[in-house]
Specification:
Helices cover 72% and strands 0% of the residues. It is mainly alpha-helical and 100 residues long. It has a single domain, classed as Substrate Binding Domain Of Dnak, Chain:A, Domain 2, CATH 1.20.1270.110. Helix 1 packs parallel to helix 3 and helix 3 runs antiparallel to helix 4. The chain starts with a helix and ends with a helix.
Length: 100
């Protein structure tokens, strides 16, 4: 995907996060802590393509975890796989941020 497409997808996932939070009565408690730690939004067009990819995987992981925590079967494996993909795209500095 091109960077502008990634930013559009990032925007879509952020909107989905908001709508799902409203639907489940959850404002993204623990599910989206890793996304919040990244400190990136779709408006940050100056961030690198890789940083938006990590944000997309992080948001996707949080969405899968949100479904899993609300008794939707099968999302545990999806969440774990998205976490692995997120970590694969992270720099060592970003990985250290998550270990703290």
């Amino acid at each position: 995907m091109e960077k502008d497409e990634l930013i559009q997808f990032h925007t879509f996932l952020l909107e989905l996060k908001s709508n799902l939070g409203d639907m489940f009565g959850n404002n993204g408690g623990g599910e989206f802590l890793s996304y919040d730690k990244l400190d990136i939004s779709p408006n940050h067009v100056y961030k690198s393509r890789r940083e938006h990819i990590v944000a997309i995987f992080s948001l996707s992981e949080g969405i899968a975890t949100l479904f899993s925590n609300n008794n939707f079967a099968g999302f545990e494996k999806t969440s774990k796989r998205l976490s692995q993909m997120k970590e694969h795209n992270m720099t060592e500095k970003e990985k250290e941020l998550f270990r703290l």
